[in-house]
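Sanity check

After download, print the first record. It should look like this:
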Amino acid sequence: MILEHFALLIQVQSLDKKIGSHLKNISIQEERVISLQKARSLREKQLAEDQETKEKLKAELGQKEKELFEKDQLIARSLERQKTASTEAQCKAIENEFAQFMPQKEKLEIEVYALLEKQEALEQTIKDHEIFLAGSLKTLSEIQKEVDLHTQKDKEEIQILEERIKIDLDSAPPSIKNIWNDLSKKFRFNSPLSFVENGVCLECRYSVGRNTENQIEKGGVIEFCPNCKRLLAPKKRV
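Expected structure tokens:
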């Protein structure tokens, strides 16, 4: 490998790193949409669950109100009989009914009140879900437009960079192109090429020795780091 080939691969690595930066930008932009979509999906699920709970609560409340109505009717009938009671035994029986019915009525009233409060709180929660979903739908549309605009610019830059890389690699011998392709499979966006300084690979800090460094700097050998397996390039071509 001659020095010019190292210079070409160093340039390709630099261009490819820029592609990585653009891809990262695209990922960050798309995550804005994904994050809001996830939040909306969670709210939609919560809304469906709360609406189901509301229906169950409505049925339970209806049953309790029915029981309370029936209990009021029993108490009303006892009051009517009390007016016409003529014996001590009849009065005693009616008093026993009151002693039984009144605590039951009070218990039902407490249960109905608690269910009404729960229903009110649930309706507010459902309303909050609906407000969020309506507002976030508009926000999602706005964010999507922003994301599309930004990512389109990044994609255009990536296309330009890919074309430049292709031109560079097509101008190199097949062996050089193959070396790059093999390296990029393992190290793409993570420095397929490394340099040696003071006998040490700058990417993994493995000691390759001064003699190897001198040979690499002359540009006449192909050396890979024994540890990280990156191609070791001469620094003077940077």
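If your output differs, re-run the checksum step. Summary of this record's structure: The chain is about 80% helix and 5% strand.
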